[in-house]
Amino acid sequence: MTRIVPLNREVHKSLRVDGRASAAYGDNQRFTHVIVNEFPQLVVHYPILFSKDANTGEFYCGVMLGFDEGENLFLEEWRDLQFYRPLGLQRVPFYAHGPEVAIDLDHPRVGVAEGTALFTEHGQPSRYLQRIIWAFQDLDPGIQVTRHFIARLLELKLIEPVDLEAEFDDGRIINCDGLYTVNQDTLLRLPDEAVVELFRRGYLRLIHYMIASLKQFHVLARKKNGHMLKATESLAGVRPSARG
Amino acid sequence: MKAGGLSVTLIESPDIKIIGVGEGTWPTMRSSLEKMGVSETALFRECDAAFKQGGKFAGWTTGAEDDAYYHPLMVPQGFSQVNLVPHWVREGRGLSFCDFVTPQGRLCDDGLAPKTITQGEYRALANYSYHLDAGKFAPFLARHCTDKLGVRHVLADVVQVNQRESGDIEGVLTKQAGEILGDLFIDCSGFSALLLGKTLGVGFKACSDVLFCDTALATQVPYDSPDAPMASQTISTAQAAGWTWDICLPTRRGVGYVYSSRHQSEEAARETLLGYIGPGHEDLPVRKIPIRAGHRETFWKNNCVAVGLASGFLEPLESSAIVLVELSAKLIAEQMPACREVMDIVAKRFNDTTMYRFGRIVDFLKLHYVLTKRTDTAFWRDNVDPATVPDRLRDLLTLWKYQSPWYFDELDRLEEVFPAASYQYVLYGMGFETQVAPEDTVDSAPAAARLLRENERATGEMRARLPTNRELLNKIYQYGLQPV
């Protein structure tokens, strides 16, 4: 259930929210929405791809975090604040409410004793809440830009399905379907005026981030192998090796 | 189409109404439309199109209450690797042949769509074609062809055809737009075959000695509520002297009765049709359409080739009319003669292929009749008279008693209208018996077992994943299908 109310410094002055990454709070996603503004931070860790909304069929941008349902291989790095965590997950349990921020009071992150206070004792937004406010300042326009970016790429027939397959040390082969990326052949054959237009709009840079990020797929597969190895070694009582 | 210096002019009479009954298509329509650059989303939104996943034939074998089988559009699992017929004969576990080899019959039973909203335009989980409103589809295509493909559309009546000494057509004189010249004339004038028949004198070969139906009564039935469930199979129900069609469009059903006037009076036929539709619809307007079963003796003569009704027509039992138009148009486009010198060579090929296609369609339609066990009316009894069965079909039926039609049967043309899979569905849907020796299934048993497991898995997954026809159409209206 959700109970979304506008955030109010009087009503919510002592409310605490646990913003840390955790599977229990819903960070256990193998694929999550992102916006184009995040691409520079994302490209160094995650494969950035297109996928389709199951309900509407419409394209969105997302990053791959794991292979199996509910598998996020980055929870540790997120907990230690080492790696960038997508805004769409950072903002939970908050929502944009016009220029204001709203909160889902029924979310398990809310009202946790070891959580972070939203307001200082002087009634000012805490650093945590301030980061959320900034996140929404990026998110709202970012969602629009992302939508335009996708629409333009579709018009130029630049989006194509991608076949991503990974083989793991346990012999399992996982085929990731329903993912799309930039069609590089079509990109190379674009007429000059389209190339200039994509460059001026800043889309060309985004396209190159997406292409470069495909390399992260293999990194991600190795990471899963490493996780599996750790799991078997701890079961067998063997000390973790340097592998992975 | 203005490619390589080619220009296309369509001359259409502003007064002659289209027949507008053709509502069923084959999956070829998907590739045809995709190739033409038509948006599938626009097709659904503007032509009242719906998904078609095959035909359901009720009452054709015995006429009993539960007598029905599917001719789905998906070929049997692993069709190119293993012939599953012998395996079904020997260990069919009481399943119908269709359910044994493909998920599609069960998808139809459940009223499920062949895809989800995340499959892009023309992509599918289960093979499909369309049911559509022909009255909307024709102008929709005309707009696309004039706006996007550079076809010139002239609304005019042809009053005179001018020929050269060689017999070639030089031009057509129109009442409203003067004379229009051309190098190649495609006769799409419908049953009248104005160019090929009337001008060039090509005769008509009737097939009414094989296929008896010669009249159709057509009507449209409203739904009780706008969200009434929709079937995605054409339902063909055997009647006293023919069969009724029942096609679900999003807005209404198209229902009609195709019958033999030699076996039933028009009045009795109307009663049969209204009896099928059920009470409360006695006042529906019913249109009568004559069907002249047969085709031209040749299809391309001189510089004129007939496509569509001008080339011939057979009863719409398997939606063969529009698929023939597509195949003919494709053949003409891909074999377009570079000059007059080579035209007769191309014409001969076209004639051979089209004659073959008409022959195979006649055979395949007759197959539905010849396998019946019904003896309740003269129509069904007359249909199994050996004198009415084409030689080729008779030979095949003899052969198929001992071996089932498969990949390497003689139905092996690159673009066979009805592939061997279609014959399998009709034969074994209607209880045809093929003898199978125990050793026939030994070598392929492991592969067959794998395919049957795959069929069960695919059936379960599709039933869990697929929305209903109505749900998916509503999503397409709201969000559209993605181009990829």
Task: Give a short overview.
Chain A is built from eight helices and twelve strands. With 244 residues, chain A is of the alpha+beta class. In chain A, strands 3-5-4-12-9 form a five-stranded antiparallel sheet.
Description of the molecule:
The complex is a heterodimer of chains A (244) and B (484). With 244 residues, chain A is of the alpha+beta class. Chain A has one domain (4-236). Chain A contains eight helices and twelve strands. In chain A, strands 3-5-4-12-9 form a five-stranded antiparallel sheet. A three-stranded antiparallel sheet of chain A has the order 1-7-6, covered by helices on one side. In chain A, a hairpin with a 2-residue loop joins strand 6 and strand 7. Chain B is of the alpha+beta class and 484 residues long. Chain B has a domain at 215-290. Chain B is 35% helix and 19% strand. Chain B has helices at residues 28-36, 40-46, 85-91, 97-101, 104-109, 134-147, 194-199, 266-277, 320-334, 340-370, 378-383, 391-399, 420-429, 445-465, 469-479, and strands at residues 9-12, 50-52, 54-58, 68-72, 129-131, 152-155, 158-163, 169-174, 178-181, 185-187, 204-206, 215-222, 233-239, 242-248, 252-259, 287-290, 294-296, 300-301, 304-306, 312-313. A seven-stranded mixed sheet of chain B has the order 4-3-13-14-15-12-16. Chain B has a three-stranded antiparallel sheet with strand order 7-8-9, with no helix packed on it. In chain B, strands 10-19-18 form a three-stranded mixed sheet. In chain B, strand 7 and strand 8 form a beta hairpin. The longest helix of chain B has 31 residues, at 340-370. The radius of gyration of chain B is 23 Å and the shape is globular. The two termini of chain B are 25 Å apart. The mean pLDDT of chain B is 95.
Tell me the fraction of residues in β-strands of chain B, as a range: 15-25%
Helix content of chain B: 25-40%
Largest sheet of chain A: 5 strands, antiparallel
Q: pLDDT below 50 for ≥5 consecutive residues: which ranges of chain B?
A: none
Number of strands of chain B: 20
- The poorly predicted ranges of chain A are 240-244
Mean pLDDT of chain A, nearest integer? 93
Major sheet of chain B: 7 strands, mixed
